[in-house]
Amino acid sequence: MIRTQIQLTEEQSRKLKAAAARRGISVAELIRQGIDVSLEKEASPSRDELVARALNAAGRFRSSRHDVARRHDRYLGESF
After folding, report:
1. How far is the C-alpha of 65 from the C-alpha of 79, rounded, in Å?
2. How many domains does the chain have?
3. Does residue 14 sit within a domain?
4. 75, 64 contact by CB (below 8 A)
5. Is the dihedral of CA 47, 49, 50, 51 positive or negative?
6. In this structure, what are the phi and psi dihedrals at residue 50, rounded to the nearest 5 degrees?
């Protein structure tokens, strides 16, 4: 592991110590877990981006079936 030094406000330090004690882990471990969550969120596409991708893909594919909108459950069941 790499040692890193950070500065916290008194309130942040107090809250971190209390949260770590409740969870039975060290403050350092709690900070590492928080960093992992933050980085994972950053790497994952946002909901807005997912919606934009879905809207961009809608209507781009063709099927030989003309009743997919009406019978989509049946076709989906057949594919599984």
Report:
1. 14
2. 1
3. yes
4. no
5. positive
6. -65, -40
Residue 25 lies in domain: 9-58
Mean pLDDT, rounded, for 15-30 = 98
Statement: residue 71 has pLDDT above 80: yes
The whole model's pTM is what? 0.56
Helix axes 10-23, 27-43, angle to 10 degrees: 100
How far is Cα 28 from Cα 3, in angstroms, rounded to an integer?
Answer: 10
Q: Report phi then psi at 31, rounded to 5.
A: -65, -45
30 burial via Cβ count (<10 Å: 0-12, 13-18, 19+): middle
Residue 44 is given by DSSP the state S
Q: Scanning the structure block, which residue is given the tokens 């030094």?
A: 5
- Between CA 50 and CA 71 the distance in angstroms is 25
Cβ-contact 42, 27 below 8 angstroms: no
